[in-house]
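Predict the structure of Glycosyltransferase subfamily 4-like N-terminal domain-containing protein.
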Amino acid sequence: MTTSEPSIRSLHRVLVYTDAMGLGGAEISLGHLIAQVANDLSLTVVGVSPSVVSAIASHRPGTTGIVLPATGLSTIVAHLTTFHYLQPDKPRSSQAQNR
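Done. Here is the predicted structure for Glycosyltransferase subfamily 4-like N-terminal domain-containing protein.
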C-alpha cells in the first residue's frame, strides 16, 4: 500500500448504556437516536433490563444487546468485564435519575 491509497478503516465500536428498569422518555429517545446511526458503526446496547435493552436495540437492525446484572456482588465485575471486552470507541450513557 502506498501513501496515496486510502487506508481500510475498521468499524468504530459504539456502546450505549442504560441502567433503566423500564421504558421512559430517555430510552425511547435513545431508540430513535440509534435508528439514525450510520451503518459504518458497530453498535451495542448494554443495560440491566432485558426488555429495555431489547426495545432500544430493535430500532436498528444488526444491533447487539447485552444484559448485565443490576444488583449483587457480580454487578461491578460484569460491567467492567463487558466494557473491557467490547472496547468501545465512543461510550455513551443514559442513566436513570430517580430510583
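The chain has one domain: 17-94.
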